[in-house]
Write a structure and sequence with these properties.
Blueprint: H1 2-40, H2 88-97, H3 124-163, H4 168-192, H5 206-228, H6 234-255, H7 257-273, H8 281-302, H9 305-325, H10 331-349, H11 365-380, H12 382-386, H13 390-406, H14 412-427, H15 431-434, H16 453-477, H17 482-507, H18 514-535, H19 546-566, H20 569-579, H21 581-586, H22 593-612, H23 630-650, H24 656-681, H25 693-716, H26 720-744, H27 747-750, H28 762-780, H29 787-814, H30 826-850, H31 853-877, H32 881-923
Helix pairs in contact: 1-3, 3-4, 3-5, 4-5, 5-6, 5-7, 6-7, 6-8, 7-8, 7-9, 8-9, 8-10, 9-10, 9-11, 10-11, 10-13, 11-13, 11-14, 13-14, 13-16, 14-17, 16-17, 16-18, 17-18, 17-19, 18-19, 19-20, 19-22, 20-22, 20-23, 22-23, 22-24, 23-24, 24-25, 24-26, 25-26, 25-28, 26-29, 28-29, 29-30, ...
Length: 924
C-alpha cells in the first residue's frame, strides 16, 4: 500500500514537471522555427560569434557544435553545414522564459542548407509527422524513462521483500546504490556535454531527469530504513532525508526548477515521514528554518518566485499544524520559526537592492499570511490568550510591519498585519453591545476573543505602531509611488480606528464616554496633521493624492466617532450634521477632492442615525409640543448645514460632492416637515398609528411643494441633482395620489369620516388642495421641465379636481360618511351627469385658454364618460323629468361644444389666411 501511494505521488510530481517543461519547450520551438524560416528563405545571416553555440549549455560541456564537430560521433562537420545559432540576447530571453535554467542546453537549429529554387516546401503533413515522431522518440521517451527508473527502484525493494531473495540490509543497499548511480550518471552526462541535435529534444534534459529519479529513490530508501525496518533512528533518518532534500534543492542550480521542486517537497514531507516518541519542536523548526533559508538563497539566484513561495507556505503550514495539534505548545519555538521566516524574507529573498523599492513581491503573500495567522491564533484562542501569548502575537504583528518598512516590496505584510489586527479587535466586542445576539446571527453571548487589560494595552501599542509606520512610509513614497503610499496611509488609519472603536464598545460606556472621546479627538487631529505632512512631500506639493485622502478621511471618521462618544443621542445627530460644514470650509485653503466627500460622509452618518431612530432622542424622551421639539433641531439643523456645505463646495471644489450635499439638504428639509406634520397629527407620537388620508394629503402637499422649490432653486443655481430631484418629487407625489388618495385611503372605499364642516373638510385637504398645488406646479414647469412631466402634473390635477367635485356631491347627499355601499339616489345620479359635463366644459375652456392639449384631451375623455353614463346608466335608472333633463343637458352641452370648436377652427383658418396674405404682401 505504501509503495502504491509513493508511485501515485511520483506520477503526480513528474506530471507537474512535464507540464513546466512543455511550456518551456513550446517557447523554444517557436523561436527556433522562426530562425529556421529565416535560414530556409535564403537571407544571408551574419557569422556566429565564437562560443555562441555553447552559451546556455551545461557547465563543462565542450563547444563541439561551434567547432564543427558532430556532437554524436565526434566527426568533423563540413563547413557548408555550419549550424545557425541564436544570438546571446535570444538565449537570455529563452532562459528567462524557462524559469532561469541557462544550464539546460538550448535546442540547436538545423544546418542551414541552401534550397534549390525549384524545390517546393515539404508538405504540412510531413512536418506534423516529424513533430510527433520527435516528441515520442525523444522527449516522451526520456520523461517516461525517468518515471520508470524512479518507480523501478521502489519496486525493486518491494520485489525483494516479497520474494525473500535478499535480506533487508542488502535490499536497501541495492536501492541506495541505484539512486547514487543515477545521480552520478546524470553528473557524468552533464559534464561530458551530451546533447541531441534534434529539434524538440532539448526539452528532455536527461541529466536533470536522472538526478530527480535518483533523489526520489534515495528518499524512499532512507524512509524504508527508518519507518519499515527500523535500521536507523529518527534523528539519523531526519538528518538524511533533510540532507537529501537540501542537496536536491542545491543541485537545481545546475539542473533546473523541476529538481528544486522535488527537493523542496521531499524536505517538507520529511518531518511527517519520521515519527518520534518524543517529538522535539526545536528540531522541527530549526530544520525548517535551514531548508527555508537554503531554498530562498537558491531561488534568489535564479529568481524562482514560485519555489520560494512554496517554501514559505510549507513552513507556515507546519507552524499552524503544530499549534493546532500539539498538546502543550512550545511558544518560544513558534515565535522563533515565525521570526526566522521574516528574517529569510528580508535578508535572503529580498536582499537584492538593485530592484525598485516600489515594486510588488507576490511571494511575500505566503509568509505574511501564515505569520499573521499565527499571531491571530495566539491572540484569539482562549488557551493562548489566557497564558499571555497575545503579547507574542502583537510582537509578530509589529515584526510584519517592521519588515515591510525595511523591504517596501514586501507590501503584503502590511495588509496581513492590518487584517489580523482588525480581526483580533473586532473579536473582543461583546455581541450584546452591537445587538448581534438579539438579531440571531449565530454569535453567542460571549465575544470571540478574550478582552482583558493586556488586550487593552496591546491595542494602544499596535495603534501607535500603525500610525507611526503608516504615515512615515506614506510620506516617504508619496511622490515616487502614490499607490504604495496610499496602502500605508490606509492601514495607518484603519487599524487605529478599529482598535479605538473596539476598545470603546468593549470597555467604555456606549451611551456617553468622555474618556474615549478625548482619544478620538486626538486621533482625528493626528490624522489631519499627518495628511498635511504627507501632502507637503507630494510632487507637486499639496496635490491631495490618495495617501492624503486616506489620512483626511480617517480624520473625518475619528471626528464622527468622537461626537458619538461625547454627546447624547439628540446632540450627536445635530452635531454630526453641523460637522459637514468643517470640511466644506476647509476647501477655502486646500482644494483636496476628498474634503467634499468627507462632508458627504457626515450626511450619510446622519441619515444612518435617523434611519435607526427617527425620533432623534427616543420615543420616550421626545416632547409632545408641536413644531418646537427635537424633530425640528434633529432634522432642521442638518438640512441647513448640508445646504451651507453645498453652497461652499459650489464655490471651491464643486463636483459630485456638491450635488450630493444639495440632495441631502433637500431630503432633510422634506423629512423635517413630514416628521413635524406626523408628530402634530398623532399627538406627539410618530412611531405608532396608521397613516390617515389627511396625513397623507399633508405629505403629498409637501412633496409637491418640494418639487416647486427645487425647480426655483435650480433656475437660480443650475444643478443636475436639483433638476432630477425636482422631477423625482413630482413623480413621487403622483404615485402617492394614485395609490393612496384614489385607492387605499379613498373615503368612498374606506367610509372614513369626512368631517362635519361643509367646505373645509377632509375632501378639501385631500383632493382640492393637492389639485390646486399640482395644477400650479404644472403651470410653473411648462417651459422648465420636459413636456411629459408638465402633462403628468396637469392630468393628475384634473383627476384630483374631478374626484373632489364628485365626492363633494356624494357628501352633499350622504353626509359625513360617503361609503360606496350606501347606494345611489336618482337626483344624485343626475347631479353626477350634470357635474361631469360642467367639469368637462371647464377643462375645455382652460385648455384653450392655456393652450394645453392635455387639458383639452382630459375634457374630451370626461365628456365621453358622461355621455356613456347618460346612455348606459341614466336611461335605465332615471325616471320622469330627471331622465329628460339628463338627455336635454347632454345634448345642449354637446351642441355647444361643437359650436365652440367650429368657431375656434373658423377663427384659426381666418388667422391662417390673413398670415399668408401678410407674408405675400411683405414679399412683394
Amino acid at each position: 500500500m505504501f509503495f502504491s501511494l509513493i508511485a501515485i505521488a511520483a506520477v503526480i510530481a513528474l506530471f507537474v514537471i512535464i507540464s513546466r517543461q512543455q511550456t518551456r519547450i513550446g517557447l523554444i520551438e517557436r523561436e527556433l522555427g522562426a530562425l529556421r524560416s529565416l535560414v530556409l528563405s535564403g537571407v544571408p545571416q551574419p557569422a556566429p560569434k565564437t562560443g555562441a553555440a555553447t552559451e546556455g549549455a551545461p557547465a563543462g560541456a565542450p563547444a563541439t557544435v561551434a567547432d564543427g564537430v558532430s556532437p554524436m560521433a565526434g566527426e568533423a562537420a563540413p563547413a557548408e553545414a555550419a549550424v545557425a545559432t541564436p544570438d546571446a540576447s535570444k538565449v537570455e530571453a529563452l532562459e528567462e522564459a524557462g524559469e532561469g535554467t541557462p544550464t539546460e542546453p538550448p535546442e540547436p537549429a538545423e544546418a542551414a542548407q541552401p534550397a534549390a529554387p525549384t524545390e517546393a516546401a515539404p508538405p504540412a503533413a510531413a512536418a506534423r509527422q516529424t513533430d510527433v515522431e520527435t516528441a515520442l522518440g525523444t522527449r516522451w521517451a526520456v520523461w517516461v524513462g525517468g518515471i520508470a527508473l524512479a518507480l523501478g527502484g521502489l519496486f525493486l525493494i518491494r520485489y525483494t521483500i516479497e520474494a525473500g531473495i535478499f535480506g533487508p540490509g542488502v535490499r536497501l543497499a541495492m536501492a541506495g546504490i541505484l539512486g547514487l548511480v543515477l545521480i552520478a550518471g546524470a553528473e557524468f552526462i552533464r559534464r561530458t556535454g551530451f546533447r541531441v541535435p534534434v529539434q524538440g529534444a532539448a526539452g528532455a534534459y536527461i541529466p536533470s531527469i536522472l538526478t530527480a529519479a535518483g533523489a526520489f529513490i534515495l528518499f524512499g530508501t532512507v524512509y524504508a530504513a527508518h519507518g519499515i525496518y527500523g535500521f536507523i533512528g529518527p534523528a539519523l533518518a531526519f538528518t538524511l532525508l533533510g540532507a537529501i532534500g537540501v542537496a536536491a534543492i542545491a543541485a537545481s542550480l545546475v539542473h533546473g526548477l523541476a529538481l528544486a521542486g522535488i527537493g523542496l517537497v521531499g524536505a517538507m514531507v520529511t518531518p511527517a515521514l519520521v515519527a518520534s516518541q518524543a517529538p522535539n519542536p526545536w528540531a522541527l523548526f530549526v530544520y525548517l528554518a535551514i531548508v527555508l533559508a537554503a531554498t530562498a538563497a537558491i531561488a534568489r539566484i535564479r529568481d524562482w518566485k514560485a519555489l520560494v513561495a512554496a517554501a514559505f507556505a510549507g513552513t507556515g503550514i507546519w507552524t499552524i499544524l503544530y499549534m493546532t495539534d500539539a498538546p502543550e505548545m512550545n511558544l518560544a519555538a513558534v515565535v522563533f520559526v515565525s521570526l526566522a521566516t521574516l528574517a529569510v524574507l528580508a535578508l535572503v529573498w529580498l536582499s537584492r537592492r538593485d530592484e525598485a523599492e516600489s515594486g510588488f513581491d507576490w511571494p511575500s503573500i505566503a509568509p505574511g499570511f501564515f505569520v499573521a495567522l499565527t499571531a491571530l491564533g495566539l491572540s484569539v484562542d482562549p488557551v493562548f490568550a489566557k497564558a499571555g501569548d497575545a503579547l507574542h502575537g502583537a510582537l509578530l504583528l509589529a515584526a510584519l510591519v517592521a519588515v515591510a518598512l525595511y523591504r517596501p516590496r514586501a507590501l503584503p505584510l502590511v495588509f496581513a498585519a492590518g487584517l489580523a489586527t482588525v480581526l483580533i479587535y473586532l473579536g473582543i466586542i461583546p455581541p450584546a453591545t452591537i445587538g448581534a445576539d438579539a438579531l440571531d446571527v449565530g454569535l453567542g453571548a460571549e465575544p470571540l476573543a478574550t478582552s482583558d487589560t493586556l488586550t487593552f494595552r496591546l491595542g494602544i501599542a499596535l495603534a501607535v505602531v500603525f500610525i507611526g509606520a503608516g504615515f512615515w512610509a506614506a510620506r516617504r513614497f508619496a511622490a515616487a509611488a502614490p499607490a504604495l503610499a496610499a496602502s500605508w496611509a490606509a492601514w495607518g488609519v484603519i487599524a487605529p480606528l478599529v482598535v479605538l472603536t473596539a476598545l470603546w464598545l468593549t470597555f467604555g460606556d456606549i451611551d456617553r464616554d468622555l474618556g474615549y472621546a478625548l482619544p478620538g479627538l486626538l486621533l482625528g487631529l493626528v490624522f489631519a496633521a499627518g495628511g498635511e505632512w504627507i501632502a507637503r512631500s507630494e510632487e507637486p506639493p499639496l496635490g491631495g493624492g490618495p495617501a492624503v485622502s486616506f489620512a483626511l478621511a480617517g480624520a473625518g471618521v475619528a471626528g464622527l466617532l468622537m461626537l458619538h462618544m461625547a454627546f447624547g443621542s439628540g446632540w450627536t445627530t445635530m452635531l454630526l450634521g453641523a460637522a459637514a460644514i468643517v470640511p466644506a470650509l476647509a476647501t477655502r485653503w486646500r482644494s483636496y477632492p476628498v474634503l467634499g466627500w468627507i462632508a458627504v460622509g457626515a450626511a450619510v452618518a446622519v441619515l444612518g442615525r435617523v434611519a435607526f431612530d427617527p425620533t432623534i432622542v427616543g420615543a420616550a424622551t421626545l416632547s409632545r409640543t408641536p413644531v418646537f421639539n427635537w424633530l425640528l433641531i434633529g432634522y432642521g439643523v442638518p438640512a441647513l448645514a448640508f445646504g451651507f456645505a453645498a453652497w461652499q463646495l459650489a464655490r471651491t471644489t464643486n463636483g459630485r460632492p456638491r450635488l450630493a450635499m444639495e440632495a441631502a439638504s433637500a431630503l432633510f428639509a422634506l423629512l423635517a416637515v413630514a416628521m413635524l406634520v406626523r408628530h402634530a397629527m398623532h399627538g406627539g407620537v410618530i412611531d405608532t398609528g396608521a397613516v390617515t388620508l389627511g396625513e397623507q394629503a399633508i405629505y403629498t402637499l409637501i412633496a409637491l411643494g418640494a418639487g416647486g422649490i427645487l425647480v426655483a432653486i435650480d433656475m437660480r443655481s443650475p444643478s443636475s441633482v436639483l433638476r432630477y430631484g425636482s422631477m423625482a418629487a413630482g413623480v413621487l407625489s403622483v404615485a402617492f395620489i394614485v395609490i393612496r388618495h384614489f385607492v387605499v385611503l379613498n373615503p368612498l372605499l374606506t367610509d372614513e369620516s369626512t368631517g362635519t364642516i361643509p367646505v373645509f373638510n377632509l375632501l378639501f385637504i385631500a383632493y382640492l388642495l393637492p389639485a390646486v398645488a399640482a395644477g400650479a406646479l404644472a403651470l410653473y414647469v411648462r417651459d422648465k421641465r420636459p413636456r411629459w412631466y408638465a402633462a403628468m402634473l396637469a392630468l393628475i390635477a384634473s383627476l384630483l379636481a374631478f374626484a373632489y367635485a364628485t365626492l363633494s356631491v356624494r357628501r352633499l347627499f350622504k353626509g359625513e360618511f360617503i361609503g360606496l355601499w350606501s347606494g345611489l339616489g336618482q337626483l344624485e345620479t343626475y347631479t353626477y351627469s350634470a357635474l361631469w359635463l360642467a367639469i368637462g366644459v371647464a377643462l375645455l375652456t382652460a385648455g384653450v385658454w392655456l393652450r394645453s392639449q392635455v387639458l383639452r384631451i382630459a375634457s374630451a375623455v370626461l365628456i365621453a364618460v358622461a355621455v356613456l353614463k347618460v346612455f348606459l346608466f341614466d336611461m335605465s335608472e332615471l325616471e320622469g323629468v330627471l331622465r329628460a333633463l339628463s338627455f336635454i343637458g347632454l345634448g345642449a352641452v354637446l351642441i355647444g361644444i361643437g359650436l365652440f370648436y367650429q368657431r375656434l377652427l373658423t377663427r384659426a383658418a381666418r388667422e391662417k389666411v390673413e398670415n399668408q396674405q401678410e407674408q405675400l404682401a411683405n414679399r412683394e
